[in-house]
Design a protein that fits this description.
Number of helices: 12
Strand order of the largest sheet: 1-2-3
Shape: elongated
CATH architecture of the largest domain: Orthogonal Bundle
Order of helices and strands: HHHHHHHHHHHEEEH
Helix content: 55-70%
Radius of gyration: 22 Å
Distance between the termini: 53 Å
Number of strands: 3
CATH superfamily of the largest domain: Ribonuclease III domain
Length: about 230
Amino acid sequence: MSDYSRLEQALAVSFAEPALLRQALVHSSYCHENAAAGLGHNERLEFLGDAVLDMIVAEQLYRDDPAMAEGAMTKRRATLVRRETLARVARAINLGDFLLLGKGEEGTGGRDKVPNLAGALEAVIAAVYLDRGMERTREVVLRLLADEWRRPAPGGRDYKSRLQEVSLARFKTAPDYRLAGESGPPHDKRFTVQVVVNGEVMGEAAGKKKQTAENEAARQALERLGEGFTD
């Protein structure tokens, strides 16, 4: 494992201090078996990366959806930063190929273990933060998590489907979602959507994704109609 340039390419980051990236990839098992190498393990970087990741994800959730309640944001963040999610992201960039592991850990499949991959990804995030600063780290994190971000939130309410049922039952017509406006630069657009039910605008919401805005507009319409989920 000597070609760090492949990993830098996957991260879209060129390190001013490559030693930081190397440090992020050193598992404690390697240190135990190679004490003479004088390398420290990546656990301090993992600690820092965990905090940086939490901050970036929390801020982006706050900006993405002004209608999302604190409890929902907490649950969504937990899903995005949990070990299984981070390990999946790490596999997507082949991070396991770059880990420095002891022979024992290597022999037990350490390159694909969830704790090793998740911890290394957090350590790499910390290395980017220390080398390039918060703004560059935010770009890296949001790009790495892009596919995970698009996954539906577990247990999220599908207000659009519920509104469809209510509208068809009451008015014999489906809701109509209309794009009322767009704002922001191409990389950070926000969409404003209105939902029309039986010829009347009954909800309007904004979000970074049209689907998010539509779902919130549908929730508002259901509230006006006195309908919703009953659990």
